Structure formats: C-alpha cells, structure tokens
C-alpha cells in the first residue's frame, strides 16, 4: 500500500507541475531565457546521472544473468524516442514562446501526453524495484518537466490559445503520467520491471543527449556557457553522490 501511495502521489505531483506554466505570463522573454537554459542544463545532468548511476545498475542487479537484455531494452528505450521524433516531429520545447512561428499546439499536446505516459511507466517501475530508486527517478523527471512545461504553456498561448484553456489542456496532457504509472502498478506481476527500468534509462539518455544538451550548447556567450556547463555537471554530480547515499546500507 505504501508503494501504491508513493506511485499515485508522485504521479499527481508530476501532473500538477504542468500548472507552473503560468509563470511565463509574468516573465519577460529575457528573464525566461535566463531561467530556462540553466534549468535545461540541470535537467540534462540529472537525467544522465539518474540513468547511469541509478537505473542501469538497479536494472542489472535485478535482472541477474540477463544482462544482454537489459542493454537491449536500454537501446530500445533510446531508439523509440528517436522514432517518435523522426516521424512524428516530437521534440521537447525549451525555447521562448516567440521563437515558435508555427501553430504546433495539437501535436505538442499529443507528444506531451505520450511523453508523460512513458514517464509514468518509468517512475512506477523504479518504485516497484526500490523506493529509493523511485525517488531518484521522480526527482530526475520532475527537474526535466519544469522547464518543459514552462516552454509548452508559452507555446500554446503564443499559438492563440486562451491562457485558461492552455493551462487546462496542458494539465490534462500531463495526467497521462498517472495512467502510465497505475497501469504498471496493477500489471506489475506480469511485467519485467528490470527491462522497463532499462527502457526508461534509454529514454533519459536520449532526451538529455538529443534534446537538452543541444539546446544549451547553442549559447555563444562564454559566461552563460560556463553557467550552463556548471548546472549540467551539478546535476550529474548530485546523482553520482546520491548513489552512495542511497546505497550505503543497501
């Protein structure tokens, strides 16, 4: 019951993060950019750190002798997002709203729903393997969701949506996180949690390497580039240190 509560509560909190988008209505574009890129950098670091230092080791430990299938599922998790992005033009949005010239709102909501559904699967799998792993996975996903939801809301409004409608539909698309999490919880006896965790680790690496890192690498100013790199390394470092904290008595 404790695990169910943590998974459900974690899903609800993750969905509520979508409401943070309203901040874009009170931030100037200059302030938005000043905030968003360090957050994207931190997010990339935590996703990579979470995948390498927590999720893959836990999946390998739980899988026993099936190591090759752990890496196969890791590769599948990486590749499935590549396919989505290649053929559905699904991409993570972390730009200022005015930088998006075309109305992409419906595709954005669809891709966000799929992204959140997959995120819920990953979080629930992690919690069912180990509560500590679930907490780490939730934190990594939450740090990624914050800048993404800021960007998504801004794009919806810029595309002509009323602020109230944008907030509502962005929230509804985020509730698929809960659906994915609950499906894994109730069908967990029939699922290979180690494989699902490795799959999610592949998702994390793809999002960080293909979507997030290229965003902050575009920065031309040396000072801002150093700040972005600092937050990236901070994210990786926190997850590296937390491995020893969480697994000290494991």
Summary, kept brief:
It is built from nine helices and no strands. The protein is mostly helical.
Percent helix: over 70%
Distance between the termini: 22 Å
SSE succession: HHHHHHHHH
Overall 3D geometry? globular
How many helical elements?
Answer: 9
Secondary-structure blueprint of this entry?
Blueprint lengths: L1 H15 L12 H35 L3 H22 L16 H25 L1 H28 L4 H12 L1 H12 L5 H25 L4 H26 L3
Helix pairs in contact: 1-4, 1-5, 1-7, 2-5, 2-8, 2-9, 3-8, 4-5, 4-6, 4-7, 4-8, 5-6
Supply the key terms.
single chain, mainly alpha, 80% helix, 250 residues
Overview of this protein structure:
The protein is mainly alpha-helical and 250 residues long. It has one domain (2-6, 33-247). 80% of the residues lie in helices and 0% in strands. The chain has nine helices and no strands. The chain has helices at residues 2-16, 29-63, 67-88, 105-129, 131-158, 163-174, 176-187, 193-217, 222-247. Helix 1 (2-16) runs antiparallel to helix 7 (176-187), helix 3 (67-88) packs across helix 8 and helix 4 packs across helix 8 (193-217). The chain starts with a helix and ends with a helix. The model is unreliable at 97-102 (pLDDT under 50).
